[in-house]
Amino acid sequence: MKKSLWICTALALSGCVTASDGEFHASEKATELTQKYILVDGHIDVPYRLQQKWEDVTLATDSGDFDYPRAKAGGLNAPFMSIYIPASLDDSPKSTALAHKLIDYVEAIVGRAPDKFAIAKSPDDVKKQFAEGLISLPMGMENGSPLQGNMANLKTFYDRGIRYITLAHSLANHISDSSYDLRKKWKGLSPFGKELVGEMNNIGIMIDISHVSDDAFYQVIELSKAPVIASHSSLRRFTPGFERNMTDEMLVALAENGGVVMINFGSTFVDQVSRGWRITLSEKRKAIEQEFGADSEQLANFDEEYIKNNPFPFANVDTVVDHVDHVVKLVGIDHVGIGSDYDGVGDSLPIGLKDVSAYPNLVQGLLDKGYNEEDIAKILGTNLLRVWSEVEDYAAKH
After folding, report:
1. Are the C-beta atoms of residues 289 and 325 closer than 8 Å to each other?
2. Parallel, antiparallel, or unpaired for β 135-137 and 78-84?
3. Pairwise CA distance, residues 207 & 394, whole Å
4. 3-class DSSP state for residue 44?
5. What is the pTM of this model?
6. Residues 6+ apart with CB under 8 A from 133
7. Where are the domains of the chain?
8. DSSP label of 380
9. Is the torsion defined by CA of 158, 162, 168, 170 positive or negative?
10. Are 217 and 252 spatial neighbours (Cβ–Cβ below 8 Å)?
């Protein structure tokens, strides 16, 4: 899939742990809590998955991390559908066209099963649809490239249901530097990006700082008059040197802003051993390519042989819980949520959290840590809904 790059294909060569593997068994209490409360996931990549291969996710599917039966089993009520735009389309009208196409896919899901799904454009929509037994499908745009430097496009996408925008993805675009891009073209936000922060505040679209550079993050925090989110980020404390994740200092600034970090489940996001494995594989592969060439026999079989001799070290539920727990201990219960990145991190998902049916395992981990029902409800969804409401309230006044 998209963001795991080569790792998904590589892991597929050796087979992967399935959703039922591992020693994680949620109690009836954990399962009950996922059904009782609104469960918001800040980032699920279903639309781009369907762009690659269409499947009817209103029914059970043989592939992917999300479909209706598994979502219901896991208690997932409000997955933000990621309108993901590859950085390769930056500065191109194709990015805008793809964004509209992916929104069409989300609308098609609802059109196929209006008794199961509904588009959600506000926290009130989510609450109403939850009461009706529907799964809400709010939308967030991952990579602001489709705006093409035109504020009129911001309004167009707002009207279509976009309620957060991840300012950049894997490369600097016309809005912001990316955490993955060493060039730091803008040293944070571009002039348009700085203007965009105010316009997003005024129209009522949440600003998502996942993927942006550290400098861009702090500039957003300084400029934004409303709380911001990290829709699918984890913590740099556990992955030193990985700029894609957030430092403790950034968490403090985010909390002072009133925002929320939604923890990414990917093994390489939450575990330094998993991340180190990925880095080592990449370095060894690059060395062989430099020595023997990209089309060499040595390179053709390298991934398969490496994984056979060095199995991927998956993270597990407890690792993800540790990230949640650290945020709570550092800045409080009101500033953390769930941003799994299902259908976006491929086969690197932790043991016990392999698809959207597995949220009870996460809740069990929180119960085992001593979290009470009220706190778990906040982590599952109340925190994000609070931020979303505050963003709406600011826009209503401006």
Report:
1. no
2. unpaired
3. 13
4. strand
5. 0.93
6. none
7. 6-271+313-397
8. I
9. negative
10. no
Q: Which two tokens stand for residue 179?
A: 């955490």
Q: Report the distance separating Cα 57 and Cα 75, nearest Å.
A: 16
Q: How many CA atoms lie within 13 A of 185 on its CB side?
A: 17
Token pair belonging to 300: 């053709």
Could you give the angle at the alpha carbon of 48 between the alpha carbons of 44 and 49, nearest 5°? 80
pLDDT digits (tens, 9 = 90+) for 144-155: 999 999 999 999
What type of residue is 50? Answer: L
Q: With 0-12 CB in 10 A as exposed, 13-18 as middle and 19+ as buried, what is 299?
A: middle
Strand pairing of 162-166 and 206-208?
Answer: parallel
Which residue's structure tokens are 């098609």?
A: 108
* CA 178 vs CA 196, 242, 250: distances in Å: 16, 12, 16
Whether the CB-CB separation of 390 and 60 falls below 8 Å is answered with no
Residue type, 144: G
Using CA atoms, how far apart are residues 283 and 275, in angstroms rounded to an integer? 12
φ, ψ of residue 105 to 5 degrees: the values are -60, -45
Q: Do the Cβ atoms of 199 and 154 come closer than 8 Å?
A: yes
Q: How many CB atoms lie within 10 A of CB 295?
A: 8
Q: Give the residue carrying structure tokens 């079989």.
A: 301
> Which residues, including other chains, have CB under 8 Å from residue 277's CB and lie 6 or more apart?
268, 310, 312, 313
- The CB density around residue 133, as the number of other CB atoms within 10 Å, is 10
Q: What is the pLDDT of residues 21-60, one digit of tens each?
A: 456 789 999 999 999 999 999 999 999 999 999 999 999 9
Q: Which CATH superfamily is domain 6-271+313-397 in?
A: Metal-dependent hydrolases (3.20.20.140)
Question: Which are the contacts of 382, defined by CB distance < 8 A and separation ≥ 6?
Answer: 37, 38
Contact 347, 16 (CB under 8 A): yes
Q: Give me the average pLDDT of each 10-residue run along the chain (398 residues).
A: 40 37 80 98 98 96 97 98 97 96 98 98 98 98 98 98 98 98 97 98 98 98 98 98 98 98 98 96 92 88 89 97 98 98 96 98 98 98 98 97
